[in-house]
Every structure is written in C-alpha cells, then in structure tokens.
Amino acid sequence: MHQTRINHSKEVPKLELGEHHGKGGRNFGDGVFKWMSAVFAASAVFLLAAMVIQMTRASALSIQRFGFGFLVERDWNPVQEIFGAFPFVFGTVVSSVIALLLVIPIALGVAIFLSELAPGWLTKPLSLLVELLAAIPSIVYGLWGMFVLAPWLLKTVYPILTQTLGFLPLFQGVPQGNGRGMLAAGIVLAIMILPTVASVSRDVMASVPKGYREGVLALGATRWETIRVAVLPNVVSGIVGAIVLGFGRALGETMAVTMLIGNRAEISASLFAPAATIASMIANDYSGASDELYLSVLAELGLVLFAVTLILNIASKLLVWRVGRIPGAERSL
Amino acid sequence: MGVYQRRKFVDGVMRSWCILATLFAVIPLFSLLAYVLLKGVGGLNWSFFIELPKPVGELGGGIGNALLGSFVLLAIASIFGIPVGVFAGVYLSEFGANPFGKLVRFCADVMSGVPSILIGIFVYTLVVLPMRSPSAFAGGIALGILMLPTIIRTTEELIKLVPNSLREAGLALGMAKWRVILRVVLPAGMSGIATGVMLAIARAFGETAPLLFTAGSYPFWSVHLNKRISSLPVQIYEYAGSPYEEWHQQAWAAALVLVVMVLILNLAAKLLTSSRSHAR
C-alpha cells in the first residue's frame, strides 16, 4: 500500500477547552486558526470536485457527439473519426480479471499466513517485504516486465500453456516476438496489486478478537478449522472489499500495462495477443493527439475510468468498514 | 482414512498452501530487485549522475538533467503539497470530529484511489492548455495533487497520537488553543508529519503517468518553470521503449537509482513511526 495504515486502539478523547477565555481576545486567534486550516482541508474536497468538473468539460465534445454508446462499438480508427472504444474496455476488464484470478489464491494465502500462522519473528520482516513490493514504482515493474518477465513467458510459459491447454482458444495463436500481450500485462498487474489485497485482508483478519479463535481451539479444532470457523466467516466482507480495491487499482494502472500489453486496439480470444486498455491508450495518445475531437474522446474514456474506480473504491471502503463492527473487534479499520 | 487423519490432512494442506503462497509472493520482488541491481549497477558511475544524455551510438552520457528535473518537480510539488496537506491533516486531527471533517477524509481517501493518469488529464486541461505547453510548473502541480491525500491522512493519524496530556498542559498554562497546536502539538508530532511527507515524496518520485503530458521531457539542463522538463521515471520510460541496447542499459541504471531512493524514503518513514510508537 502506498500509505501506512496506522491503527490506534483508543480514540483520544477531545477536550473542548478555550471557550472560557471570554469574547474576543484569544478566541479570535483560535477562530482564525481553525478557519485557516479548514480552508486547507477543504482543498481536498475542492480538488475532487474540480476534477469531476474539468474531466466532464474536457469530454463535452465527445459526449455530445457520441454519448456513451461508443463504449460498446468495436471499430477504432481515429484518422477517419471512427471511435469505437470497446477494444479498450475489453482490454481493461480482461487484463484486470486475469490479475484478480491469479492474485486471489496467493494474496489470501499470504494474508492468512501473516495474520494466523507465521511465528512472531517472521511476521514483521514479511510484512515489510510486502510493503516494499507496494512501494516500487510502476515504471520499474514495467521495465522488469519488458526485459525479464515477457521474454521468460515467451520462452517457458507460453509453450507449456499451448501444449497443455492449447485446446482452449485462450491459449492459441502465435505470441508476439517480444512476449508482450494480454497475459503478460495481467501477470504484472497481479504482482502489483498483490500487496494491496494481501495487506488489507491481513488487517481485517487481525481485527477478529483473539477470544473467537481461542474458543474454537479449546474445542479441539485444528488451526485450519479455527481459521475457517472463527476467522473467515467474520471477515468475508472485508476480504471482498480488499479484492474490490485491488480490482480498482488494476483497472487504473497505467505505466506497467502500457509497457507490456502491446498496445493494439484489437479484440482477440487469445491471451497471447496484444491488446490495449483505457489507461494505456490515454498514456500513448493523449499528448500526441492534436485533434480536438480525439482529445475529447480520450478524456471521456478517462471520465468513465474515473467513475468506475470511484465506485469501486467507495464499495471497498464500505465493505471493509463492516468488519470493524463485529462485536469486540480488536482494531479500528 | 479416519476422521482424525482427514482433519489433520486438510489442516496440513491448507497450511502448506499459505506457506507456498507467501514464498511465491516474494519471488517477483527478489527477481525484480536482483535484476535492477545486477543490470543497473554496471551503468553507474560519476558521469551518469552529472552528464546529459548522449545521442545513440556514443558511449557514456548520463541522466543528470532527469535527476535535476525530478528534484525541481518534487520541490514545486512540496511547496504547495506539504503546507496544504499538513494543515489539512491538523484540521482533521484537532477539529475534524464533524460532518465536514468526515467529508474531507472521504475525499482524501477517494483521491488516493484515483488512477494517477487521470490527474495528468486534469492538470493538462487546467494548466497545460492555458500555458500552451507542458511545463515544470504543470508537472509539479500534478505531483503535488498526488501527494496530498497521503500527507493529509498520515499527518492526521500521527498527530492524533500526540498524548492529550500535552495539549491539556499547554491549555492549563493559559495558552490559546492555536498556540498549543503550533507550539506543542506540531513539534511533538513532527516525526509523524515527516513520515507522511516522506511517504508522499517517495510515491511522487516514482510517478510517471501524470508527468507524460504535463511535464513532458527535455534532453537538456533546465530549471525553468514554464518549460518542459525531464524526470527520472519519464526518462526510464523513454529509454525502455527505445530499440537501443545502450539506452536499455541506461534505463536499468536509472531504475536502480529510483528504486534505491524510493526504498530509502520508505524505510526511513517506517523507522520514524516505529521509534515513535515505542516512545508512547
């Protein structure tokens, strides 16, 4: 995660002092200070609102001309002003779904290990490693993906997949010579969202009171049964929230995907084939597009991405919050 | 197989799944760090840090301008990002137990989840279009917006950890609340603020997407606010996308510099908070 999560067990009670200073005098300074800092705080609200307004304005031309129907049309040819954005919607969703499918079993394993199984001396360094994974910039994942992951996939993984699962259309076709394509992008996305999904899931699991586990253990359950009976049912919504958060991250991730997906506005059943996402399209073409209509179309795609990630973020927050309400939850989330 | 063996067996399978998953999860991290180190370290020398990029075919050359550019961009971002973020965080911690505080918190959280490329579009329409060209100023604003949510939320959470007795002591001595906050709470929470700032800078340092069309790139020395400027991540992106082996080498070396700086900032932030929680 990009931010440290600091949990405090007790909310510090707030003292409302200072009222008795009398009118004017020192209360005046307090008022000024409070309002000044409130203005700074309002900047977060203001910026978010300004983003929504600016993005809508930037895409006005395209919304007027095409509405939102162009999201499901398949033909994309900016030179002839044919804007069907479905290839990018497809690429965005499919690459993120691949990432989720790969990351869920691994991230849950990591989360359970870190919160339930790992011995005390191992938890801290491992958590630190997971946090470092989150701190590495996207561009570095992209570089590594281009020159290490993609060639390795091309040489080792793609042939195996074709041999074993080649009867599925997913794994047919000849990969690009540099190994870049939908699957490569999905894998690097999985690596990038792993820390998010794992650390949020670990946090919700750790918030389950110890007594729950002790109760089940005392009845003679094994460790796994304890986790299954005492921990998991209480944190289902939190884990779903973690996954939703990871999905939102994956949809909006730009640099590594741009470097690995091959950037072609095509829809192919094969996961080896190059594709493009909304974010990669914007990264490639936004500054180069001098045509006003084209810029506007890209801005509208950005607006759609904005709306979707916004909804996913809010949904994930609500889901994780629900866990905080189980009786006797250890930490505020 | 009896019921006991079966239960033990299931337990063993699930445990090994968790352990294997954890091992599996750290493989990419080690692979990435190893490659960045091995491939990057060969390209590092003094001139790499202080020279301009050289054209293809000529050996040597550095990323001096990109490094300088990154610092310029971060300086601009910090000038407005840090004061706004810190005071917003102070507001949330000291006065924020109201609906407005909730709204601010919510917006900051939402902002931290907005894909960074969209902040690029936002700043493009707001700053680049009126100025008619990408500029260091626009890039700095974009990074500043990116830094805000991290600074706001970390400052709030760590300022909240300042013991209430300190506030009470100040008030009991007759200080006005604003002076207590400025003279007692902020100094006591300084390490918390520094943590937030360092995490935010580490994040902004590695950001590429919002800079692509706000700051652009520029192959010469520049500190002009109204001109294009290079930055370390954008430089890596351009080198990596080029077909030249020498430039790939430069990209790895630049990535090593970037990773080392980001990791140092993150570890320092971590140390600061952990020494803080011991002091409590």
Report on the architecture of this protein.
The complex is a heterodimer of chains A (333) and B (280). Chain A is an all-alpha fold. Chain A has 2 domains: 16-58; 73-325, MetI-like (MetI-like fold, Orthogonal Bundle), CATH 1.10.3720. Chain A contains 11 helices and 2 strands, in the order ααββααααααααα. Chain A has helices at 26-58, 60-66, 86-117, 120-135, 138-165, 182-206, 210-218, 223-252, 255-260, 278-285, 292-323, and strands spanning 76-77, 82-83. The two termini of chain A are 15 Å apart. The model of chain B has no long low-confidence stretch (mean pLDDT 88). By secondary structure, chain B is mainly alpha-helical. Chain B folds into 2 domains: 2-41; 49-279, MetI-like fold (Orthogonal Bundle). Chain B has helices spanning 3-41, 46-50, 64-95, 99-113, 116-131, 136-159, 164-172, 177-188, 190-206, 232-241, 245-279. Chains A and B meet through helix 1, helix 3, helix 4, helix 5 and helix 6 of A and helix 1, helix 3, helix 4, helix 5 and helix 6 of B.
**Biggest sheet details of chain B:** none
Q: Provide the succession of SSEs of chain B.
A: HHHHHHHHHHH
CATH topology of the largest domain in chain B: MetI-like fold
Instruction: Give the CATH architecture of the largest domain in chain B.
Output: Orthogonal Bundle
CATH class call of the largest domain in chain A: Mainly Alpha
* CATH evolutionary superfamily of the largest domain in chain B: MetI-like
- Tell me how many strands of chain B there are: 0
Task: Give the CATH superfamily of the largest domain in chain A.
Answer: MetI-like
Q: What is the overall pLDDT average of chain A?
A: 85
Query: Going across the major beta sheet of chain A, what is the strand order?
Result: 1-2
Q: What are the low-pLDDT stretches of chain B, counting only 5+ consecutive residues below 50?
A: none
Terminal-residue CA separation of chain A: 15 Å
What is the helix fraction of residues of chain B, given as a range?
over 70%
Q: How many domains of chain B?
A: 2
